[in-house]
Amino acid sequence: MRPSTRQRTFLLAFTVLCTLLGLGCPLSCEVCKGPGHTCSGKLKKCEAGKDACVVLVGESSTKGRKSVNTLKACMKFSDCYSGFVSTTMGPNDYMVSNAQCCQSDGCNHDSVPPPQNNRTENGLMCPSCIVPFQDSCPGTRATRCVGQETHCIYFAGNVQAGIFNTKFATRGCATQSACYTKPGAEVPSASYLYFLRRADCLPAPQPPGRAE
Ligand SMILES: *[C@@H]1O[C@H](CO)[C@@H](O)[C@H](O)[C@H]1NC(C)=O
Q1: What is the pLDDT of residue 126?
Q2: What are phi and psi of 7, to 5 degrees?
Q3: Is the C-beta atom of 122 inside 6 A of ligand 1?
Q4: pLDDT digits (tens, 9 = 90+) for 152-205
Q5: What's the 84 CA to ligand 1 centre distance in angstroms?
Q6: What CATH number does residue 83 fall under?
Q7: What is the pLDDT of residue 4?
Q8: What H or E segment, with its residue span, contains residue 88?
Q9: In sequence order, what are the residues at sequence separation of 6 or more whose Cβ sits closer than 8 angstroms to the Cβ of residue 92?
């Protein structure tokens, strides 16, 4: 049955009212996840506290296995970074992404340009490690940073892949934009959802022998 005009008027009035009064009106976002540079799904109401829609396209390599995935979802605006992020844990383990955050119903419908993936080494290095099931990792190895990666990160917390939820810890190179991520943040990648307890981000040390 189609909603009556009266019902629709009521809904509109309700939306306007809760916006004006600054009440927590639920936002609706397009929700989907899948391979490729875009995906499309239904509009869904966001759960309480998620006040932004995000569209994110990520290109990743895991032990040399490459994939491109797109995510559209609800998330907390204060955890959402609009722009390019690149992280490298090793020559065959990296992730680049481009995202757009917005705050109106269905605003994440359009796709975003795929991230640039500049794998040229830039002379900087960071401690690196990737461990599942643990919340710290030693970083006794080092990895070479590429492109615009000027910072070293140490992220740890929980990662959720479908119904599977486990601890993880990782260190490596990242663009300065990765420093936007703070402990306590709930951050999606194109494939997983990360709950960060630790999010250290520091400028990469200058390589020895290079004058300032
Ligand atoms: C790729 O990264 C290298 C190292 O930072 C830089 O010199 C080069 O200009 C970058 N290329 C592009 C197309 O951005």
Answers
A1: 97
A2: -60, -45
A3: yes
A4: 999 999 999 888 999 999 999 999 999 999 999 999 888 889 999 999 999 999
A5: 15
A6: 2.10.60.10
A7: 54
A8: strand 83-90
A9: 61, 62, 63, 64
Note whether residue 2 is domain-resident.
Answer: no
Q: Is the CB of 62 under 6 A from ligand 1?
A: no
Q: Are 85 and 96 in contact (CB under 8 A)?
A: yes
For 108-130, what is the mean pLDDT?
96
Indicate whether residue 115 lines ligand 1 (CB < 6 A). Answer: no
Residue 52, domain member (yes or no): yes
In a domain, 111, yes or no: yes
Pocket test for ligand 1, best of 94, 119, 122 (most atoms within 8 A of CB): 122
DSSP state letter for 179: G
Q: How many domains does the chain have?
A: 1
- With 90 as the cut, is the pLDDT of residue 115 above it? yes
Ligand 1 geometric centre to CA of 153 (Å) = 21
Domain ranges, residue 78: 26-203
Residue 91 forms part of a structural domain: yes
